[in-house]
Amino acid sequence: MPEIDRYRPEDQRGVEALYRRVFGNDAAAASRLRWDWQYRRNPNNPNGSPLLWVVREGPTIIGHYATMPVRLSLAGRELAAAWGTDAMVAPERQRRGLGEELFRVWDRSVDASLGLGLSESSSSLLKKLHWPDVPPIPGLVKPLTRRAVRLPTVPMPINRFFSFVTYPIVRVAARVRPLRADVEPIRRFDAGFTELWERLADRFTLAVRRDAAYLNWKYAEPPHVRYSIAALKRDGRAEGYAVYRHAQEPRGRVTWLVDFLADTHDEIGFKTLLRWVDAEARQAGSDKIRGFAMHLGYRRVMRHSGYFQMRHPMALAVKINALTVPAAFYKNTDNWHVTLGDSDQDR
């Protein structure tokens, strides 16, 4: 009978072979590039070991579930949580409940279970297991050029017409505004950003702990993607940050606002970070800026800064296991802080 067990280092070859079978050689190569960073070097690993599970059938690995541990803050109280990431079962063993059992084992092992950007199969499983319904994370976009409204699925003549019609709106949204505080590019986060998190943690009903160790691991050290980091400072003290990157898409160039943090009452400070990203996006030749923001206060400032809400939000799943929370906790998410940078959606 198959046996579910915690991952051991000697399982690595079997896990890689399974990944190739399930997702293909290209996806396996991409996973291998980031695997050590994403799982082994995570500063939140319990006892320093990756929080992974495998399904063994004799000497063969026929299933695997990878998770990304984080410290989850609930209004300042921290729980040992984890994002569910890569799940796979050998093709000939699928539809036999192994994936669901892997999921249940993970869920029982953490104080809080988290999921981001869920697939249809994952969403169906959560409904079957009666997980709480959580609102998705709204996406926002700021147009910078007339090419910002082009869609890859629409013929070019129609795209040109859209560009012509919407250009007056784009000009207003993209107008240049001056910075109103000191912002500087940085390569790594120092202890001042841990102090910043400690000052702001109780402002959020739910948020992943964003201390210097986590931020450096997440944004300064990944081998598969390069981020730019801007720090907001006043009198030499860290007051916020923004993490972003530039990417080429089929019909234009985009700058992704991946993560950010500032005092939710510091509207000038957050606007200054957004204006810095605006300038960096223009310098990189981007046609638009995209991001995801759960917190209502941040979204309000972004809308005042020229962002519009996108049609498709990003699915979010949260289940608190270590505490009893009221049903309203999962509905009233305006003070939750979740961005694209959480979990592993930005690859």
Can you describe this structure in just a few lines?
This protein has 347 residues and is of the alpha+beta class.
Question: How would the blueprint of this fold be written?
Answer:
Blueprint: E1 3-6, H1 12-23, H2 25-40, E2 52-57, E3 60-74, E4 77-89, H3 98-109, E5 112-116, H4 120-128, E6 139-143, H5 156-173, E7 182-186, H6 191-200, E8 206-208, H7 212-220, E9 228-234, E10 237-249, E11 252-262, H8 267-283, E12 288-292, H9 296-304, E13 308-309, E14 316-320, E15 336-337
Parallel strand pairs: 4-5, 8-15, 11-12
Antiparallel strand pairs: 1-2, 2-3, 3-4, 3-8, 5-14, 6-12, 6-13, 7-9, 9-10, 10-11
Which residues sit in consecutive blocks of at least 5 with pLDDT less than 50?
A: none
Helical content (DSSP H or I, runs of 4+): 25-40%
How many helices? The count is 9
What structural class do helix, strand and pairing data support?
A: alpha+beta
Q: Would you mind describing this structure in some detail?
A:
The chain has 347 residues and is α+β, with helices and mostly antiparallel strands. Helices cover 32% and strands 29% of the residues. The strands form two sheets. Strands 1, 2, 3, 4, 5, 8, 14 and 15 form an eight-stranded mixed sheet that branches. Strand 4, helix 3 and strand 5 form a beta-alpha-beta unit. The protein is globular. The two termini are 36 Å apart. The mean pLDDT is 90.
